[in-house]
Amino acid sequence: MVTVDDVRSICLSLPGVTERLSWKQPAWFARTLMARMWEDNVLTVKSAEREALAALQPDLFYWTPHHDRSPLLLLARLEHLPPDELPELLQESYRLAGPLPPTV
C-alpha cells in the first residue's frame, strides 16, 4: 500500500517542491498546492482527467462537494492506489500546480 512517506519522497524529489502543513495535514507545494493529505490515507492531487478517473475507478478516485469549485482537485484512496501509478499521478499534479521557474 502507498504511504504518506511514499508521497513525501516523490514530491520532495521534484524541483522546487516544499512541504508544509495545510489544514493540519502534510502538503506539498510547487508554485501552488500540488498534493495534500486530505485525511488518513486519502491524497488530494490535481488532475486534468478528474471526471474520467473518478468514472473509471470510483473505488480509488473521487471528490467531495468541497472540491466542486476546483475542477482539477481529485482525491485518491491510498489503499487502492497501485504504487507504480503514484509517480505519474504526482508528476501530473506538479505540472498543473505550476513548477517554479528556473532561476537565472
TrEMBL record:
GO MF, one example: DNA binding
Entry annotated with the keyword DNA-binding: yes
Any matching Pfam family: YjbR
Record keywords: DNA-binding
Superkingdom of this protein's organism: Bacteria
InterPro entries tied to this protein: YjbR-like_sf (IPR038056), YjbR/MT2646/Rv2570-like (IPR058532)
Keyword Nuclease on entry: no
Annotated protein name in UniProt: MmcQ/YjbR family DNA-binding protein
Species lineage: Bacteria, Bacillati, Actinomycetota, Actinomycetes, Micrococcales
